[in-house]
Design goal:
Order of helices and strands: HEHEHEEHHEEHHHH
Strand content: 5-15%
Largest sheet: 4 strands, mixed
Strand order of the largest sheet: 1-2-4-3
Helix content: 25-40%
Number of helices: 9
Oligomer: single chain
Distance between the termini: 41 Å
């Protein structure tokens, strides 16, 4: 049975994100939360511009249809929308909706952003590289930080573990090293280093060796970050 949820200008927060995850799950679309909202769950005090979900490439159209049916307003194509600007600091979503004038619900193809994981459904089943937003290892709310973990009473929402997210950022920065998008990925990586590094959810020694070289170059004064990104090879 399809979800009875209908979007009626609800506030963007854990409850709405859980409702979106439920809509996708009920359509048999495996997904993970992505974007700035994800950073807040790791405890990073990030500005939130909306919620983004990543799904398998072949499921994007169905995901779009399900969210449209749930009442999320699709973008009109207006130049007021940040995603319709001529120069973007990060890759645009494929379809996107407007939760409010300046808050977006975006969908991304797995192949475009989730380079550390090739099969979302299989990784969800393993419960290693993909975890829940209610995971006990995630930080709780702390003043001056991000909102942290979701309540376990909410519908389950899947996210990358901080380790896999960090590896994805490194892979994206390497892939886009000759494009200005690389600066965006590196900025996200610096957030992970500044706010999450050293905690239980992100231990440098558990990174894949090729990713570890890039990460250490980022952290080290005088490290050859550009050289490591050019030499990076996926394992």
């Amino acid at each position: 049975m399809d979800s009875v949820f209908q979007f009626k200008n609800q506030t963007l927060g854990p409850e709405l994100i859980a409702d979106i995850a439920r809509i996708l799950d009920e359509a048999a679309i495996p997904s993970v939360l992505w974007g700035n909202y994800l950073l807040t769950i790791y405890g990073i005090p990030s500005v939130v511009d909306g919620a983004s979900f990543v799904a398998p490439d072949q499921c994007l159209h169905l995901a779009y249809e399900k969210l449209l049916s749930a009442g999320f307003p699709e973008c009109s194509g207006s130049t007021d929308c940040v995603w319709n600007q001529s120069r973007l600091c990060s890759p645009p979503p494929h379809p996107h909706f407007h939760v409010s004038k300046n808050l977006y619900l975006s969908l991304y193809k797995r192949s475009r952003v989730l380079l550390s994981i090739t099969d979302i459904e299989k990784e969800i089943a393993k419960a290693e590289g993909i975890i829940l937003t209610s995971d006990s290892r995630l930080p709780r709310f702390e003043l001056g930080r991000g909102g942290g973990a979701f309540s376990p009473t909410l519908y389950p929402v899947h996210i990358l573990s901080a380790l896999r997210y960090t590896e994805s950022l490194i892979m994206l920065a390497s892939r886009d090293r000759d494009h200005h998008y690389s600066c965006f990925w590196l900025a996200m990586l610096i957030y992970m280093w500044e706010y999450v590094d050293g905690k239980e959810i992100l231990r440098e020694e558990l990174l894949r060796p090729s990713c570890m070289n890039v990460y250490r170059a980022l952290r080290s004064e005088g490290g050859d970050l550009q050289g490591e990104l050019e030499n990076f090879k996926e394992e």
